[in-house]
Amino acid sequence: MKKWMLVISTAVLFMVGGCSFLEDTSSTLNYANDAKDYVSEAQKFAEEIPPLAEKAVNDDEAIKKLQEMKGKAEEFNQTKAPDIASDVHDQLVQQNEKIISGIEAYEANIKDGSFNPEALKNSELFQSIQDVSSIMKQIKELGQ
To answer: In terms of pTM, does the model score above 0.85?
Structure first.
């Protein structure tokens, strides 16, 4: 009887440990998918930003799109990354902070009339969005 209890107890311990492993794997895959979706949105935003920023001078809808991207970056920064993805997440958060501050700077420049569309191409905002895109390879590796 004692041997059966020992066998059952050992089996239960292995099952509980296995569940934790499955949860970690699931969490990593979910994070990788969320990160890929966010980076895809950032890449699309990078393509749209030059004409979008120019339109934002006179178009409230364009300003809303800038604010939406800022909101998405802020939301992604609040995402809880699994331990295995913490380095990638930290890189994305650093770039997102630059994106957020860049959008805020453009909003301020648009409001005070000092916006220069040509400066956008060489800006930290534009570079940060490209850096976010380059992190995509690391994110894809998480999903494998």
So the answer is: no
CA distance 133 to 41: 10
* DSSP per-residue string spanning the chain: -HHHHHHHHHHHHHHHHHHHHHHHHHHHHHHHHHHHHHHHHHHHHHHHHHHHHHHHTT-HHHHHHHHHHHHHHHHHHT----GGGHHHHHHHHHHHHHHHHHHHHHHHHHHHT---HHHHTTSHHHHHHHHHHHTHHHHHHHT-
Q: What is the pLDDT of residues 65-99, one digit of tens each?
A: 889 999 999 999 999 989 888 888 998 899 889 88
Distance from C-alpha of 21 to C-alpha of 97, rounded to nearest angstrom: 32
Cβ atoms of residues 93 and 55 within 8 Å: no
Length reported for the chain: 144
Burial 109-136, CB ≥16 within 10 A → b, else e: bbeeeebeeeebeebebbbbbebbeebb
